[in-house]
Write a structure and sequence with these properties.
The structure holds two protein chains of two kinds.
Chain A (H helix, E strand, L loop, with lengths): L1 H4 L2 H22 L11 H24 L9 H20 L12 H5 L15 H25 L4 H20 L11 E2 L3 E2 L2 E2 L3 H27 L1 H11 L1 H6 L4 H27 L1 E2 L6 H14 L5 H20 L4 H15 L3 H14 L15
Antiparallel strand pairs in A: 1-4, 2-3
Chain B lengths: L8 E12 L2 E12 L3 E5 L6 H8 L7 E6 L3 E2 L5 H7 L1 E4 L11 H8 L6 H6 L4 H13 L15 H15 L3 E5 L7 H14 L4 E5 L3 H7 L2 E6 L2 E6 L1 H6 L1 H8 L2
Helix pairs in contact in B: 3-6, 5-6, 7-8
Classes of the chains: A mainly alpha, B alpha/beta.
The structure holds adenosine-5'-diphosphate and magnesium ion.
The site of magnesium ion has 3 residues of chain B, from helix 1.
């Protein structure tokens, strides 16, 4: 099943990812600090963050690129995963907080809360937090999709309500009474699974975990998209009504990919929080979700690899540009989006594919054709 | 009120009415189709032919009336996927195929098979399925284009591919909405032959404007006007009906 799902491009992508996964920790840990080959520690976490974004983009591409569901609320699933992990990291602090309370996180002591709210129980266990990082976004996506897809909300209307969903969550998480640290969110983490979050080894470990998660998410999405179910998804994207008249329950397919995608986004969020050291309600902001769509559009919709590349390229550009002229970043991003839509409708990967296809005299649309494989 | 006379009909409509904003697109429409029958439905633009198909396939719910499948199933409670699973296949007026899929994959998706998410996630093409696709490709004359994208087919070929997809579903009833639209004369005649060949094993209801095509089908004709049947019988019979001449043929 896995072998059938991976074509040459997929192997190249996984190979490059693997090389990167080995090289970054080696250049950071094994090289003398100060030597020209040494990679500074902040860069390790930065690359790890890009990999989380890449996984998030792959998750969005699964629903948008293959099933035509333009979600403008995927940031919400990412943030929920991030919060689930953040809650665990808060519990890990234990009595080392500013107020020294053995159980309550600092912000609860500050708000004079007598005890831990019920939904914070269990998060002292790492496995439980990971499970919640997948389960909560999955459940939300399932409930939302069940209502929306069954009532056949599609297109722009669906996009708008996903945007409203993330906005509503942002407002909710801003409130102190919600019990997620309000405005400040969750931060001041100390360690994860007993490893100091500031140490180079932990950072490298988290980076490798992010790379593995990206590889896992990518392979899983390839398996789904190259199966017959993947063909049905593309059919839904291209001619939803035709698909219904063939006897497929379109809403079941949408619900399945939407939920799966939300869980992958949650996983990305769970890996993101320990690497950036904070999770706060701004992660739910509607602009964040729109940015994910731009990554996918720039990289190439409906290719998975393009989505990952788009997220990483834009992430790098953002880091460089916000350092130089922070106030221009949104204009640059908007401009990039317009340019890509006008001149590279299939994104960076599509343009690259068209070029190499020309060289090899093959049809340009070959990335849309699933690979032939006999059982 | 499902009477006994409906029991040997495959599809039975009785007193079906559907209004859009007060305008009666279907007005107390009654007719029936027997198993394996070939039937042409004609009528001027706006007569309600497409709406009738929408009602039969569960896309549109009628305001009143019975729509009964095989004497037992109430089709007004079904949606599109239900009706497809019961054995009703539909070809749209505007050819609708999956443009970014290959011709082969279009047929594969249509082939009668499990339709659930889990089943399609785990399924792999069987030899029998590939053999059936081979047969269908010959029938719709697209063997050469098997691995090409459906988007690259000509208009007429897309119509044929869609008919092929209908056959792949192996439905008991095919509803075919204006198949000859945009076809050359030769393609039109070939399509008529194909539909005649299909009938017998499957019931076929064809909506068409083209009189030459309807004559070639050589079957019972139902004339719709303002959402109701105004005449039914052989093409000679309905052509001679003064009301038909007035609303349709005479124009
Ligand atoms: N969804 C709809 N909303 C409003 N009016 C409709 C709708 N569908 C069909 N109609 C109207 O019903 C009438 C019958 O249409 P239709 O069934 O498409 O006719 P035909 O296929 O015979 O040309 C037309 O006047 C059309 O405008
Ligand atoms: Mg019509």
């Amino acid at each position: 099943m896995i072998l059938r799902a991976l074509d040459l491009r997929s192997w190249i992508f996984l190979g490059v990812l693997f090389a990167f996964t080995v090289a970054v920790p080696v250049l950071n840990l094994a090289m003398e600090p100060g030597s020209s080959a040494h990679l500074p520690s902040f860069a390790v976490s930065l690359f790890g963050k890009y990999l989380c974004y890449a996984l998030l983009a792959v998750a969005l591409d699964l629903v948008w690129g293959y099933c035509g569901i333009l979600s403008l609320g995927h940031g919400a699933f990412f943030a929920l995963g991030g919060y689930a992990m953040g809650m665990h990291l808060m519990r890990e602090i234990g009595p080392r907080g500013v107020y020294g309370d053995p159980v309550l996180p600092d912000f609860m002591v500050f708000l004079n809360w007598p005890e831990l709210p019920w939904f914070w129980h269990g998060f002292d266990m790492f496995w439980f937090a990971v499970a919640m990082a997948l389960f909560v976004p999955g459940l939300l996506a399932f409930a939302f999709g069940w209502l929306a897809f069954r009532s056949r909300v599609t297109g722009v209307y669906l996009s708008i309500i996903t945007q409203a969903l993330t906005y509503a969550l942002m407002l909710a998480f801003f409130r102190n009474e919600m019990g997620f640290g309000g405005n400040n969110g969750l931060t001041d983490f100390k360690d994860v699974l007993g490893f100091d979050l500031q140490s180079d080894q932990t950072r490298a470990g988290l980076f490798v975990a992010s790379a593995l998660a990206l590889a896992f998410g990518f392979v899983l999405c390839r398996i789904v998209t190259t199966s017959k179910a993947g063909k049905v998804m593309i059919a839904v994207r291209d001619a939803e009504s035709r698909t219904r008249f063939l006897g497929y329950r379109v809403e079941s397919y949408k619900l399945f990919v939407f939920t799966l995608s939300a869980m992958l986004a949650g996983l990305a969020g769970a890996l993101y929080t320990p690497q950036v050291g904070i999770i706060n309600p701004s992660e739910f902001s509607p602009a964040n979700s729109i940015e994910i769509v731009i990554w996918v559009a720039i990289g190439g919709r409906g290719t998975l690899i393009g989505a990952a590349i788009g997220a990483i390229l834009v992430g790098i550009a953002k880091t460089l540009l916000t350092g130089l002229f922070p106030e221009f970043w949104l204009f640059v991003l908007g401009g990039l989006f317009v340019l890509v839509t006008l001149f590279l409708p299939k994104g960076v990967l599509g343009a690259f594919g068209a070029l190499s296809a020309k060289a090899a005299r093959r049809p340009a649309a070959f990335e849309l054709k699933p690979r032939e494989a006999q059982p | 009120m499902i009477s006994h006379k409906s029991t040997n009909a495959l599809l039975y409509l009785d007193g079906v009415t559907k209004s859009f904003d007060g305008f009666k697109a279907i007005n107390s429409l009654s007719f029936m189709i027997n198993k394996g029958e070939l039937r042409a439905v004609i009528g001027p633009n706006g007569a309600g032919k497409t709406t009738m198909m929408d009602i039969v396939t569960g896309k549109t719910k009628p305001d009143m009336g019975d729509v009964v499948w095989d004497g037992t199933v109430n089709l007004t409670e079904c949606d599109e996927a239900d009706s497809a699973r019961l054995g009703i296949g539909r070809k749209f007026q505007k050819p609708t195929v999956f443009e970014t899929h290959t011709v082969e994959d279009n047929l594969l998706l249509a082939l009668k098979d499990e339709r659930s998410v889990l089943a399609t996630l785990l399924s792999s093409r069987s030899k029998a399925q590939l053999a059936r696709i081979d047969e269908l490709l010959v029938l719709i004359r697209l063997e050469e284009r098997r691995h090409e994208l459906a988007a690259d087919l000509s208009h007429g070929q897309k119509q044929w591919l869609e008919i092929g997809m209908l056959l792949a579903q192996d439905p008991q009833l095919l509803l075919v909405d204006e198949p000859a639209a945009g076809m050359t004369d030769e393609e039109t005649m070939r399509t008529a032959d194909l539909l005649k060949e299909i009938a017998g094993d499957h019931a076929v209801v064809v909506v068409e404007h083209d009189m030459a095509f309807v004559k070639a089908l050589d079957c019972r004709v139902t004339v719709l006007h303002q959402g109701a049947v105004i005449a039914e019988g052989s093409i000679e019979h309905v052509s001679a009906d003064p009301r038909v001449v007035e609303v349709y043929l005479g124009r």
